[in-house]
Structure formats: C-alpha cells, structure tokens
Amino acid sequence: MSYKRILLKLSGESLMGKKQFGIDNERLAEYSTQIKEVLELGIEVAIVIGGGNIFRGVQAEEGGMDRTHGDYMGMLATMINSMALQASLEAAGVKTRLLSAIEMKEISEPFIRRRAVRHLEKGRVVIFGAGTGNPFFTTDSAASLRAIEINADVILKGTRVDGIYTADPEKDKTATKFDFITFDDAYSRGLKVMDMTAFTLCKENDLPIIVFDMDTPGNLRRLIEGEQVGTIVRN
C-alpha cells in the first residue's frame, strides 16, 4: 500500500527516552531524523503528540482537581512537546508549521483546515497541538479527527511496542503479534489500540491505523516503503 499523506501519532511518554520525566533531546533528534527521511521520499507528514510526559488531565482528576481544568493543562503540555519537536525538526533542516486548536498567536498558527492542507502541499511538516481544543477528548481522538480533516491516507501510531498483540507482550511472554486485524476483531478482543472515540472515528471513516515501534531507527521509512512493519488495523 502506498501513502501520499500520513498522520504520525506520538505519545508524550515516548519523548522521555531514558528519562523519568520531561523531554530527552536524543530521542527528539532520532524522531526528527526518521521524519526527515520520509519527507524526502515525497510523503506529506502531519503529527500529533500527546502530553503524558509532562501532565495528564486524568492525573488532575485523581488529585481532586476539576477534570476540565486538568484537560486544558494537558493541552498546554502537548504544546510544549510540539514546540520541542518543531525546534528539533527545524534544526535538522525541515520546514514546519505548528497549528494549535487553542489560540496562542505568539507561538503558533490557529488550526484552519485549508491552511493545514496548503502547508502539507508545500512540503512542510504540520504539527497539530492542543488536542481537539476541548476537554474530555484524548490526543488519540485529536489524531483521528485531524487525519480525517486533512484526508490523510493512514494514521501511524508510533509506540515502544512493535505492533498489536493478543495480550500485553511486556507482561505475557506467550502473547502473539498480529500483522493485520480488523476494527471489529480488535474491538471484540478488547485490544487497546486507541481510545474508543478515536477508534470509532477511524472505523466509520475507513481510515486505517498502523501501530509500530517508532523507537527503532529507520522503522518509519521501512513502513512507508512497504515493508511489513507493525500491525495494520482496518475495515
């Protein structure tokens, strides 16, 4: 399967690298190199990053804070990560644009769908920050929504695991990996690919998801070039 436009979903935790908190500059540089490689293949790249390495809205709720308040704090965390990735990409010579779902005109452009598409057509990497701009929605949901809005061919969910397994491979050594699974099968097996809102958006809009190991250098390029990397989820 060939792709023209992709949406890469990265978790905030992945940016920690070997650290316990925050951002690992070496990991950022590794990701930037991988993204630059696929951009040079002529692929249009959009990115959504989580904020879990800095703050999660659910953490706030567990501590007695209002969930809405906490979710907005989480959106700010995604902007910190987005700015860090933007700086790393530009240091590698990649032109980028950061578009935020919440207006922050000093550091980003507002999210406007047509503007985002135009940036992609001009060969710029577009980073979508601040989630959907609404509380109670995860960055997985933001990734699904933005991918559909910009007519991406696929969502590439970069994780530390090399695909989807029958069980958690870090806990169950007998777990086996799927090369391909349908949305319905993943749901019936109770496999945690994305949260249900994001998952349903992808299923209803016939948008495939590929879960793969982003921490292995070169994996993103191999996936784009058609190698069997990770697990494909589709209708």
Note down, in words, how this protein is organized.
With 235 residues, the chain is α/β, with parallel strands linked by helices. It is 37% helix and 20% strand. It has eight helices and eleven strands. The strands form two sheets. A nine-stranded mixed sheet has the order 4-3-5-2-1-6-10-11-9, sandwiched between helices. The chain has a two-stranded antiparallel ribbon with strand order 7-8. Strand 1 (5-10), helix 1 and strand 2 (44-49) form a beta-alpha-beta unit. The protein is globular, with a radius of gyration of 17 Å. The model has no long low-confidence stretch (mean pLDDT 94).
Total discrete domains: 1
Reported CATH architecture: 3-Layer(aba) Sandwich
**Rg from Cα:** 17 Å
Q: Tell me the CATH superfamily.
A: Acetylglutamate kinase-like
Beta strands, count: 11
pLDDT < 50 runs, ≥5 residues: none
Distance between the amino and carboxyl termini: 15 Å
Output the helix-strand order: EHEHHEEHEHEEEEHHEHE
Number of helices: 8
Name the overall outline: globular
Per CATH, what is the topology?
Answer: Carbamate kinase
Structural class: alpha/beta
Give a quick account of the main beta sheet: strands, pairing sense, barrel closure. Answer: 9 strands, mixed
**Averaged pLDDT, please?**
94
The largest sheet has its strands arranged as 4-3-5-2-1-6-10-11-9
Helix content: 25-40%
Q: What amount of the residues lies in strands? A: 15-25%
User: What CATH first level would be assigned?
Assistant: Alpha Beta
